[in-house]
Amino acid sequence: MDGDLLLAGFIGIFAGIASGLLGVGGGILFVPALTLVLGLGTVEAESTSLLAIVPVALVGSWRQRRYGNLVVRDAGVIGALSIAGAVAGVALANVLPEVVLRIGFALLMLNLARQLVMRGLRDRRARLAAAPHA
């Protein structure tokens, strides 16, 4: 088996587990892994990620629906409207310099990390405030 194909397989397994466990979008995991591990350019990694996300999203949604966690109507609206967004994003990605895409993706990741930290701190404070004081 080709080394890159084997690495891509490991990326897929890891991203699938993390996506199912944490509910993160596969692109958040696929794009950095494809650029850092496989050495793909940003546009190639983003394009590959778009297709790779489809089976992960379908299986994850199917499994979550079985647990009663999926709001089908909302998912349908988001999915339908994201098609237009994906078309526009691909068109934009093909005209922007790769460094702009890389910086934009890095800023997105930093903002997501900031939001997760803030939510965790807020939840922790709420739990501490609700705990009985000794």
Give a written overview of the molecule:
The protein is an all-alpha fold. The protein has two domains: 3-71, no CATH class; 97-134. Helices cover 83% and strands 0% of the residues. α2 (26-36) runs antiparallel to α3. The radius of gyration is 18 Å and the shape is globular. The N and C termini lie far apart (61 Å). The relative contact order is 0.08. The model has no long low-confidence stretch (mean pLDDT 87).
Radius of gyration: 18 Å
**N-to-C CA distance:** 61 Å
H/E element order:
HHHHH
Shape call: globular
Instruction: Please provide the count of β strands.
Output: 0
Whole-number average pLDDT? 87
Structural class: mainly alpha
Features:
134 residues, mainly alpha, 2 domains, 83% helix, globular
Briefly summarize what is shown.
By secondary structure, the protein is mainly α.
Helix-strand blueprint:
Elements: H1 3-22, H2 26-36, H3 42-66, H4 72-93, H5 98-130
Helix pairs in contact: 1-2, 2-3
